[in-house]
Amino acid sequence: MQERQQDAAKPTFALVIPTYRRPDLVLQAVDSALRQTRPFDQLIVVPDGLDDPAIDALSESPVDVVPIEKAGVAAARNAGRTQARTDWVCFLDDDDLLHPDYLARVESEVLGSPGVAAMNTAYWSFAPEAGPDDEFAASTLDECLEAIANATPKRDLSYLEIEGRSFDLLLERMRGSMSTTAVRRDVLDAAGGFPHGFITAQDWVMYVNVARLTEWRLISDRLAFFRDLPDSITRTGSPQKGLTALRAIRSFWQPTSLPTPPHRPLDAYRANYRHVLGWALLACRRARDFRSYREALAIARDILPHRSDRLRAAMPGWVRGGMSRAAALVGMQRR
Questions:
Q1: Is residue 6 a contact partner of residue 42, using CB atoms and an 8 Å limit?
Q2: DSSP code at position 309
Q3: Quick check: 118 and 217 in contact, CB under 8 A?
Q4: What region, left, alpha or beta, does residue 96 occupy, with left being phi > 0 and alpha being psi -120 to 50 degrees?
Q5: What pLDDT shows up at residue 232?
Q6: Which of the four pLDDT bands, split at 50, 70 and 90, describes residue 111?
Q7: Which residues make Cβ contacts (< 8 Å) with residue 81, sequence separation at least 6?
């Protein structure tokens, strides 16, 4: 596509949309990007596969389509960022949508705070049939825009408010919204982009490494629409996803050439890491994958050095629940 002519004094922005075999959804994502009141300077769609149907679906769209051999979302995002010729790189998942004012608001923040180098915005959650965690039912951008006129926010997005303690709080858990991410390109490159070979937690690793270099800022305006799909990665689990999440956590504590900002000691994050280990072990048990089960416990020794934490994570939920109820009962009797 032709790059938009831009005032040299103002920052430029590229949008990267990775996609995998969802041509109908990626067309909607691209449409939301093209409807920005402040247009992107470059739009890049990266189909994850040389035969992805999005290649043909986008043949008439004014975007750079850069297909890669099937390698996963991290590789697709990295391929997109290397194609960017702008000061900033933004990211959008292929099933999500941007509010028309998203980039205008991001640019305003950049111009008003020259030191900012990474940010998110708040977002709305929607689905064709709204569930208990969704703010409204919708299927298209126009339906989303109509719905927010009367919608009431349900999700507590305070977890995104990490400026001033970004690195420390990101060591606990992922505290970002990938489809509203905007990072200065030089900072993203210095942080190493997205880790190769990770099937999950790629965004978490990127967020942590960026936080080694700068603080993450939140724009409180809800400027994106996250589509709640039943098969999304947050709703599904597998042994390999669990192992990858544990490897990501372990990588946070290994030596690196990047700066290490102030943070709490490893022991302070044990409840969060125990939760991830429990999720990984449950996925292994359900799949009867005992080799991965043993590997998960081996990785956990580096991030949960207390054996009691590993044992607690390995307990079935009904056992932990019974122990908690028993402890509560004992506490009541002592009072």
A1: no
A2: H
A3: yes
A4: beta
A5: 56
A6: very high
A7: 16, 89, 185, 188, 189, 193
46 vs 29: CA distance, rounded Å: 13
Looking at residue 2, its pLDDT comes to 44
8 A C-beta contact, residue 146 and residue 157? no
Q: Tell me how many degrees the CA angle 77-225-157 measures, rounded to the nearest 5.
A: 95
Alpha-carbon span 249 to 202, nearest angstrom: 11
Q: In the chain, what is the straight-line distance between the N-terminal and C-terminal CA atoms, in Å? A: 71
Q: What is the pTM of this model?
A: 0.91
Q: Phi, psi (5° rounding) for residue 15?
A: -120, 130
* Residues across the chain: 335
Query: Coil, helix or strand for 153?
Result: coil
- Tell me the C-alpha distance between 62 and 217, whole Å: 31
Domains, the chain, ordered by start: 13-227 (3.90.550.10), 239-334 (no CATH)
Whole-number Å distance between alpha carbons of 226 and 188: 23
Q: What average pLDDT is seen over the chain?
A: 92
At residue 118, φ and ψ (nearest 5 deg) are -155, 140
**Residues 56-79: pLDDT tens digits?**
999 999 999 999 999 999 999 999
Q: How far is CA 48 from CA 60, 77, 177, in A?
A: 19, 10, 21
Which residues, at least 6 apart from 213, have a Cβ–Cβ distance to it below 8 Å? 117, 187, 190, 191, 258, 259
